[in-house]
Amino acid sequence: MDMLLWVMFYTLISTQGSRSAVSLSEPSGKVYTRVAASGSSSLTNISTTSTLIQPPPVYPSLHTQKLDASGSSGVFTPPARFNNQVLPSFANTTLTNVTVIRGKVAYLHCHVLNIGTKTVSWVRHEDIHVLTVGRLTFTNDGRFEAMNKPGSDVWSLRIKYPQLRDSGKYECQVSTRPSRARVITLNVVEPRAVIPPGPELYVDHGSPLNITCVVPDSPEPPEHVFWYHRDKMVSFDGSRRGVTITTDKGPVTTSNLVIPDVTTQDSGVYICAPQGMKEASVRVSVL
């Protein structure tokens, strides 16, 4: 049967009048070449080993290739470095924890690099309230204000007269997709003065009186520390001679009131009042 097919195929080829060359392979593995010219033909045994000719490989285009990050099938997405776009980012100079004294202006700073055409918004976490977008304010509370100098990378939220209720988390948000954000925690504190050891102080007539007032754990020292006796400010040039007040400012502020020799007129309540902070008092009894 195989020989019959071979003869029929050979007869079909021999009818061509143009010169051609064809390689054929029999089941036995022999390879033949037939040369036809001017109607004559001959069949020549070239080799007893068959040869398999593979077509050249076809490589897909980069734009049509479908790959994912693991190499399996999926839509190919060029890496970020291909599109020459630098996304906004937050500088390490952005403080994420800010502590201020109640009543003093609070500033929350957000340092955004490569902002381009994006905008910066400030959002209060407690009620998801958008306070500002760009340089515009979107709250009826006039204490909040967006601040940014033209050309500056720093976008700030200013809060005037901050109260204890303003403590919490605030989000500096950049209008990318998805959005990028940096959370800043605001702590509004109300430092208070303390007069150790207690509310009562006893001193002998004619002895010196030394009262120490301490302001611990304050983010900044008070500008002034005032002393009051019987609701009147104690001063160096008052009727009471020899009075001295010494104040040492720092992370822990101390103020000392010294009266060299007390009399019964020095009895009563003394108040230590750091500016903008909770005051402390002590009752002095002269024996």
UniProtKB/TrEMBL annotation:
UniProt GO BP: synapse organization
Keyword annotations: Signal
Keyword Signal included in the entry's annotation: yes
InterPro entries cross-referenced by the UniProt entry: Ig-like_dom (IPR007110), Ig-like_dom_sf (IPR036179), Ig-like_fold (IPR013783), Ig_sub (IPR003599), Ig_sub2 (IPR003598), Ig_V-set (IPR013106), Zig-8 (IPR037448)
Domain of life: Eukaryota
Domain annotation Ig-like: ranges: 88-185, 191-285
Pfam families named among the record's database cross-references: Ig_3 (PF13927), V-set (PF07686)
GO cellular component, as recorded: neuron projection membrane
Signal peptide (UniProt feature, chain positions): 1-20
PANTHER family per the UniProt record, alphabetical: DEFECTIVE PROBOSCIS EXTENSION RESPONSE 9, ISOFORM A, DEFECTIVE PROBOSCIS EXTENSION RESPONSE DPR -RELATED
Name recorded for this polypeptide: Ig-like domain-containing protein
Lineage: Eukaryota, Metazoa, Ecdysozoa, Arthropoda, Crustacea
